[in-house]
């Protein structure tokens, strides 16, 4: 970002722009309803509203609701209103004509000329599409005896009979008023308009309207798709700066807001430049994600995504010191900051992709991963990598700090070790792994890596060897005696049981995976202790639930 200081001169134009930027920031800080009230109740409401960017007004209207914001629509200029239609009247590349009609109805206020100016500003192709969708235009010179059953209106010169279709109630009244307004504004042009509407090809109308809309959106800062997707390019992040003296103190105070810290150190003009860059990034992200620029939920979701990547990038480029944030944004384009943040997540994604491309990463669709690690890998391999939560079934969330990246990196390292050690325990090849899994008599995905490993540990303790298969029928109680001691109220694993299992399995797995092997053995035995030990110590035999946790021949302990 340029520091924007120039030679220190300022003219009336720049002063006005700075004042407007200050007003925008003040309005943006207000809740939507208070923002709307502030605009409408200001001393010169029309001038203030028309001085603001149309997209800012649109988002306020969407947050409050169009039905409660019609006064703001009335105050908007024809150009601003056309932007409202561009943002709110389309779904992807298709006109949403009921929405267009809703906006036109909302624009009708107490000043007929003001509404007509807004109406004239809407693309002719949009209005023609509206009429083709909701009316049938009959030429009475061609067919004077036409007598439709629905609601109709005849044009004053008697040339056309307009039959309404697909609308009723307020929408029907809106269409009637719209036609009356067009005719009253310019009867001759209205006749030409109706005749043209009869013969236009709907697809061509929409295509032309979409081209006009796309060009205007680009003028508003929504780049073409091919430009927007380049925002998500991988860049060399480089090493983070060395931590400063204050970094450790910051780490103890929770995650700082590096963007807010950057703003605090900027002067007024620098803030304006930064806001412009951030607005472009948000718009480009929206386009790259193929989201609708007028959909409020998409705007919020994608805006949060852009902010998350910026915060990651700033944290990395500042070395975790918010006091450096201002200088970073002075020296670095925000596009670059965004790409650094995104690239930090890509590094994890590429590692996860490489892992799952290994020959023994999965066997017949079953990943050789425990559930937590499998969920983490799935989240990392998304188009936009995410962080899996430990809560089963919870939706993965975006990365928001380097600490979260490091945590996912640790889970990924465990996943890499699990693939290596489970693949080795299954024989080291796809062929041998499939033969071993066939012993369990269920589909691999039904079995799962967690239950497979439980059987491996159980057989290691019962037989002192690596022989993945279900626990032999009738040996469940023997296994319980090997594992558990204490009382039902205070069960515990027998001393040395973890070491015995690890000693049997370690020689079969790569040395680099042995720390993870020990952790997995501990986790597996702790789960069996929690679920099976109390009832075993109470009754002297394994509960039938054991067959759910531990594969057994014939499903019997």
Explain how this protein is built:
The chain contains 27 helices and nine strands. It is elongated. It has 557 residues and is mainly α. It has helices spanning 12-28, 32-40, 45-51, 54-64, 70-75, 78-88, 97-107, 112-121, 124-134, 169-185, 187-199, 202-219, 225-228, 247-251, 258-264, 268-288, 296-317, 325-331, 334-356, 371-380, 402-425, 430-438, 444-463, 476-483, 497-505, 514-539, 546-549, and strands at residues 90-91, 94-95, 135-139, 152-154, 160-164, 362-363, 366-367, 484-486, 491-493. The protein has a three-stranded antiparallel β-sheet. It has a two-stranded antiparallel ribbon with strand order 1-2.
Provide keyphrases for this structure.
two-stranded antiparallel ribbon, disordered N terminus, 27 helices, single chain, 557 residues, 3-stranded antiparallel sheet, mainly alpha
Write the layout of secondary structure elements.
Elements: H1 12-28, H2 32-40, H3 45-51, H4 54-64, H5 70-75, H6 78-88, E1 90-91, E2 94-95, H7 97-107, H8 112-121, H9 124-134, E3 135-139, E4 152-154, E5 160-164, H10 169-185, H11 187-199, H12 202-219, H13 225-228, H14 247-251, H15 258-264, H16 268-288, H17 296-317, H18 325-331, H19 334-356, E6 362-363, E7 366-367, H20 371-380, H21 402-425, H22 430-438, H23 444-463, H24 476-483, E8 484-486, E9 491-493, H25 497-505, H26 514-539, H27 546-549
Antiparallel strand pairs: 1-2, 3-5, 4-5, 6-7, 8-9
Helix pairs in contact: 2-4, 4-6, 6-7, 6-8, 7-9, 7-10, 9-11, 9-12, 10-11, 15-18, 16-17, 17-19, 19-21, 20-21, 23-25, 23-26, 25-26
């Amino acid at each position: 970002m340029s520091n924007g200081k120039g030679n220190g001169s300022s003219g009336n134009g720049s002063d006005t722009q700075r004042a407007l930027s200050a007003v925008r920031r003040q309005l943006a800080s207000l809740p939507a309803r208070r923002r709307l009230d502030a605009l409408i109740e200001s001393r010169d409401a029309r001038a203030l509203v028309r001085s603001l960017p149309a997209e800012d007004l649109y988002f306020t209207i969407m947050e409050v609701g169009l039905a409660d914001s019609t006064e703001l629509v009335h105050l908007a200029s024809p150009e601003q209103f056309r932007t409202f239609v561009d943002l709110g009247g389309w779904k992807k590349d298709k006109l949403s004509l009921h929405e267009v009609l809703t906006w036109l109805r909302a624009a009708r206020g107490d000043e007929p000329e003001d509404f007509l100016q807004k109406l004239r500003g809407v693309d002719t192709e949009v209005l023609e599409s509206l009429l083709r969708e909701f009316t049938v235009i009959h030429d009475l010179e061609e067919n004077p005896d036409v007598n439709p059953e629905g609601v109709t209106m005849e044009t004053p010169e008697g040339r056309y009979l307009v039959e309404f279709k697909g609308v009723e109630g307020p929408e029907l009244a809106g269409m009637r008023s719209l036609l009356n307004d067009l005719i009253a504004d310019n009867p001759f042009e209205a006749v030409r308009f109706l005749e043209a509407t009869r013969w236009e090809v709907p697809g061509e109308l929409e295509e032309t309207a979409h081209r006009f809309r796309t060009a205007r959106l680009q003028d508003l800062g929504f780049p073409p798709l091919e430009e927007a997707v380049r925002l998500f390019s991988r860049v060399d992040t480089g090493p983070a700066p060395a931590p400063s003296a204050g970094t450790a103190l910051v780490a103890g105070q929770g995650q700082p807001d590096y963007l807010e810290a950057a703003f605090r150190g900027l002067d007024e003009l620098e803030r304006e430049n930064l806001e412009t860059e951030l607005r472009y990034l948000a718009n480009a992200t929206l386009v790259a994600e193929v989201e609708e620029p007028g959909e409020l939920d998409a705007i919020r979701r994608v805006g949060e995504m852009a902010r998350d990547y910026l915060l990651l990038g700033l944290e990395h480029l500042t070395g975790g010191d918010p006091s450096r944030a201002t200088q970073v944004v002075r020296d670095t384009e925000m596009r670059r900051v965004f790409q650094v943040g995104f690239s930090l997540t890509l590094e994890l994604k590429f590692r996860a992709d490489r892992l799952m491309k290994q020959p023994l990463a999965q066997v017949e669709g079953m990943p050789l991963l425990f559930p937590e690690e499998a969920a983490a890998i799935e989240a990392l391999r998304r188009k936009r990598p995410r962080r899996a939560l430990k809560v089963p079934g919870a939706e993965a969330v975006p990365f928001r700090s380097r600490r979260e990246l490091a945590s996912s990196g640790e889970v990924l390292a465990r996943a890499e070790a699990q693939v290596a050690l489970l693949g080795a325990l299954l024989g080291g090849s796809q062929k041998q792994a499939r033969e071993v899994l066939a012993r369990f008599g269920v589909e691999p995905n039904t079995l799962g890596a967690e239950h497979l490993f439980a059987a491996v540990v159980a057989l290691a303790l019962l037989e002192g060897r690596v022989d993945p298969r279900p626990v032999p029928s009738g040996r469940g109680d023997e296994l319980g005696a090997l594992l558990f001691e204490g009382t039902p109220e205070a069960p515990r694993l027998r001393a040395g049981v973890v070491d015995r299992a690890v000693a049997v399995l370690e020689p079969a797995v790569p040395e680099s995976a042995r720390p993870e092997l020990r952790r997995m053995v501990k986790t597996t035995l702790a789960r069996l202790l929690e679920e099976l030990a109390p009832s075993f110590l109470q009754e002297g035999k394994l509960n039938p639930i054991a067959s759910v946790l531990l594969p057994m021949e014939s499903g019997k302990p």
